[in-house]
Amino acid sequence: MRVEPEALLRELADGEPHSGAELAREFGVTRAAIWKTMQKLAHWGLDVGAVPGVGYRLARPIDLLDARELRRTLAPQTVRRLARLEVFTELDSTNRRLLASEPPRRGELAACLAEYQTAGRGRRGRRWLAPLGAGLCLSAGWQFEGAPRDLSALTLAVGVIARRALASAAALDVALKWPNDLAIDERKLGGILLELAAEAQGRCYVVAGIGINFALPPESLGALSDWPRGAIDLRTAMRGSPPPRLDVAARLLDGLADLFASYAETGFAPYRAEWQAADYLNGRRVKLDDPAAPASGTARGIDADGALLIETASGARRRVISGDVSMRSA
Fold it and tell me: Which listed residue, of 146, 209, 212, 316, carries a Cα 20 to 30 Å from 120's Cα?
């Protein structure tokens, strides 16, 4: 007989010690089976301690996500728009899951969350990996009748939604780095990955993935970002007391549902001023890493459709639609 890793995880999520003998009795298996299942938890990046005479315990408690509780926390208008809501313990990628699934009907939202991603990605395929429960991995899918106006700025609008969610859930003032990063204290807090799939009859299926660092081990934080000051998580930013992940997830989904429902009509205009107020790069020396046409200069905000403006040494302004922009010596 064997015990499911998810069931054992739920038992240990409180961070309290649990004796191997008691766990074996509860699940009707041998202590050896409990020990073997613990290896799966270690594979998920969890720090499981085993103290002789005391038992097993996680190094820190985890507020596990629950689909039913999350649905109860959502605003009523979001629930009405919700075509499906999935929460996985382990998944390759929440974006990939939605892109491979049947798109929701027009006016409906598909949502997917995972406690642990084996192939989480950022821009340009960069890997994003965090221990189970240490971050928030969330994706939302929406089908537009056609490509919405200001489609190129939709990533920036999603950034505004993420900023609002963190302001309301945690009273944090999050900066937005063009085009898809969230920042606090000069360090990267999370990121956004927007992906598109063309549909029949000219429809446009959009999947917005959001990853936020909540409570990561220091060694994981160090590997998550190449920013000069590295990455940060909410536990550090809030001095050890981050908000519940479920609360942030609900606020994100509420905001994304409202954004998608109105974006075809309004475009980026309602979000531009807020994005500009939180612009992390504005006035900083930057370098555009574009092999075809590299550039350096000073960031001068964004234009009406979300393109980054870089003022070069000659005083000319270059409009950047896509590319990697860094603050390394220019």
Answer: 146
pLDDT band at 214 (very low <50, low <70, confident <90, very high): very high
Q: What is the pLDDT of residue 51?
A: 84
Instruction: Check whether residue 163 and residue 182 sit in a common domain.
Output: yes
**Secondary element (H or E) of residue 38:** helix 31-43
Of residues 328 and 98, more confidence is placed in 98
204 and 300 in a single domain? The answer is no
Active site residues: 123, 188, 328
Are residues 148 and 247 both part of a single domain? Answer: yes
What is the count of structural domains for the chain? 3
| 54 and 76 in a common domain | no
Tokens at residue 271, please? 């979000």
Separation of alpha carbons 283 and 286, rounded Å? 9
Q: How far is CA 182 from CA 6, 189, 213, 251, 290, in A?
A: 31, 5, 10, 16, 22
pTM of the model: 0.93
| DSSP letters for 207-239 | EEEEEEE-S--HHHHHHH--STT-B--HHHHTT
Alpha-carbon span 111 to 163, nearest angstrom = 19
Residue 115, strand partner residues: none
Distances (CA, A) of 140 to 50, 85, 104, 267: 38, 9, 10, 18
Whole-number percent of the chain with pLDDT over 70:
95
For tokens 């020990």, what's the residue?
35
**What per-residue confidence (pLDDT) applies to 330?**
40
Per-residue pLDDT at 199: 66
Residue with tokens 């979000």: 271
For residues 145 and 286, membership in a common domain is answered with no
Closest among 233, 154, 152, 188 to 326, alpha carbons compared: 188
| pLDDT single digits (tens) 117-143 | 998 765 555 666 788 999 999 999 999
What is the side-by-side strand order in the sheet with 204-213? 82-91, 109-117, 135-144, 204-213, 187-198, 181-184, 175-177
